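Final report, closing paragraph on structural work. Over the funding period we assembled a curated collection of sequence-structure pairs, and we close with a single example.
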Amino acid sequence: MSKTKQQKDLPGGIITDIGSTARNKTGSWRTFKPVVNLEKCAGCGICEKFCPEGCITIQKVEGYDKPKCAINYDYCKGCLICMEECPFKAINSVVEEK
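Its predicted structure, as stored:
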């Protein structure tokens, strides 16, 4: 693939393959891991809306009547925005164990 003059002048990288982040698991970058307290989680979806990686979903969890927050740790980079935005303080951070 040859680069146009405009692409050559741009600083940084260029994403040439759309959707590549869905194929590349980025969870290994984490230092801190968000952990959901399902008892406190109201399933409001605020964490899902603020997650920059789209790795949080609100879904049915066995043993609970209402849907709850679920985190896909394969893609969670540990930014903890979900924890900061949760109005119920249902998300805490722990040091990631490798």
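The chain has a mean pLDDT of 86. The domain at 37-88 is CATH 3.30.70.20 (Alpha-Beta Plaits). We thank the funder for supporting this effort.
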